[in-house]
Amino acid sequence: LCSAFYCPDVSKTELLYHLLCRCVLPEAAGGLEVDVVFVDTDYSLDMLHLVSILDSKLSAADEAALRSCLSRLLFVHCYSSSQLLLTLHFLETTLSSRPALALILIDSISAFYWVDRCEGGASYTKQEEKLSRCAELLGRLLRDYRITVFATCHAIRRPGVPSSSSDSERSYLCRSWQRLVTHRLLCSRQEPGDNMASWSSSFCVTEAGVEFLSEENKCAARQ
C-alpha cells in the first residue's frame, strides 16, 4: 500500500503525527505497537508536539510507556533528492534488522521538485531521474517487505478550479511515482457554497486526533 496526501490548505504533518502515534502506541492504549520510519524532507517535524500527542493518548503519565513508544520511531532528515535516495537504500538494511517496522512516512515526497527541475535543465529525464529512482526503490521495499508507505505532496491549485474539486490536483510528479501510488487523498479547506461533485468527508484535526464531522458539526464549523 502506497498512499499520497495532497494537502494545499490543511496541516499535512499533523495528519501524519496522529497516524504515527496510532502505530507506535501499545495495544493496551489502542495502538498497533509497530515500528515507524519518519522521513522529514520539509524540516517540519515538531518533536515536542509529537511527544505531547503521545502523552495525551497514554492512560497515565507513564514515562516508561512513552519511552517505549519513542523507541519504535526512527527519524531521518533529508535535504536533497540524493540524500533521500541514500536513505531509502539504508532502509533496506533497517527493514532486515527490524522486522517490526511496518510503516514509512515521507513528509513530503515533493519537497525537492523545483530543485530537481532546475538541476535537470531542459531534459525531463534528468529532472525526474532522482525521484524516479526513489519510486523504484520504494516499490521494491513495498514488494519485498510488505510495508505501508504514506507520503504527503504539495498540491498545486489551478486557477479557476475550486480547491475542493478532485480535478484541482493533477499529479505533477514523475510517472514512476504515479504508478507506485495506490491511494490518493486530496485534503482542502471547504468553503461555504462549495458543491462536491464526488465523494467527500469533512474532518478537523485537533490534539485528540482526526475527528470526522457530522452535518450539524459541519454547519457549526463554518460559522
TrEMBL record:
A Gene Ontology cellular-component term = replication fork
Name of the protein in question: RecA family profile 1 domain-containing protein
Q: Could you say which residues form the signal peptide?
A: none
CDD domains for the chain = XRCC2
Q: Organism's domain of life?
A: Eukaryota
GO biological process terms held by the UniProt record: DNA strand invasion; double-strand break repair via homologous recombination
Q: Where is the RecA family profile domain?
A: 1-155
